[in-house]
Amino acid sequence: MTVLFLYTELADYFLKCCDELAKQAEVHIVRWPVNKEAPFQFTFSEKIKIYDKNNYTLTQLKELVQKINPGIIICSGWIDKDYLSITKSYHSKIPTVLTCDTHWKGTLKQYLAVTLGRFYLQQIFSNAWVPGQIQANYVSKLGFKKAVTNTGFYCCDLEKFNAVYTLNKQSKENNFPKRFLYVGRYYNFKGINNLWQAFIELKNETNNDWELWCLGVGDIEPVKHNSIRHFGFVQPNDLEPIVKQCGVFVLPSLFEPWGVVVQEYAASGFPLILSNAVGASEAFLSDGENGFSFPAGNVESLKNQLKKIMNLSSKELLLMSDKSHEKAQTINRQNWATTIIKMYNGFQKK
Hints:
Elements: E1 2-6, H1 12-21, E2 26-31, E3 48-52, H2 58-68, E4 72-76, H3 81-90, E5 96-99, H4 108-120, E6 127-129, H5 133-141, E7 149-150, H6 158-174, E8 179-183, H7 192-205, E9 211-215, E10 228-230, H8 240-243, E11 248-251, H9 260-267, E12 272-275, H10 281-284, E13 291-294, H11 299-310, H12 314-328, H13 333-348
Parallel strand pairs: 1-2, 1-4, 2-3, 4-5, 5-6, 6-7, 8-9, 8-11, 9-10, 11-12, 12-13
Helix pairs in contact: 1-13, 6-9, 6-12, 7-11, 9-12
């Protein structure tokens, strides 16, 4: 089986999943350039062939795909018109898979997309592959039946973050770190200003020794406070010394279709504080068991959840840690690869 991904911005976790797939299939990836705001440095397996989309005209790209002769095409959304043109030419011949992480919000724009998509997208894609049930609800409105819709599209490098959990378990049992951790871009939609405000107000109102460590860059100037540290953009391989010194993961996003980072830190054994706008909360957060949820944009509620964590004992935090780790195992790269094979085989039987 030859698998072709028509992809936007690559991520390390996606490549790890492709490594798993490459044990059973030939894998080709056409990709967009690396995002300057998230300049990840990738190491590509020899089993996976990578093509930079910028190096090809549409005609050349079509010739490349014809040469690859894919048995299944998996396309990142419908934002890239070249990708859609290529995928459409293979519709009904092989499985053509739409990936989508959009939430259904019932906006006018989405109602228009549903109206047009039921006709347009059905002429391009045979299947849909989404992260979770929120997105499955959306693509069902686009005309994709349950039988051709799969979940679990986003999957972290579970083995890597499970190892972090194992490595740091003993030290956390001896002395649970009183540090909140934020990993994400410094943009308004990430809710980072709300997090800083809530944390600083708590520091002013209560006598506590908790700190907040933040990893990321963006267009928001880092706030200055004695108990807040900023590390800038950190390459994945350089995270471990920072992560082992932190205890609770916070993602206060105003908008977050999924958030693979949530599974990463759940697997690492972090209790979670997530806004209700974070899609991955459906899979990895049980409110009160391994963390707390709050309404996106509500600073007072976020402050209350931070305070709840601060008031927990080390024993209670460790129980949350173990629960997070357990919940993170539900999506893994073996199942990710199996999903592709299932879509391929299911199409062949039609």
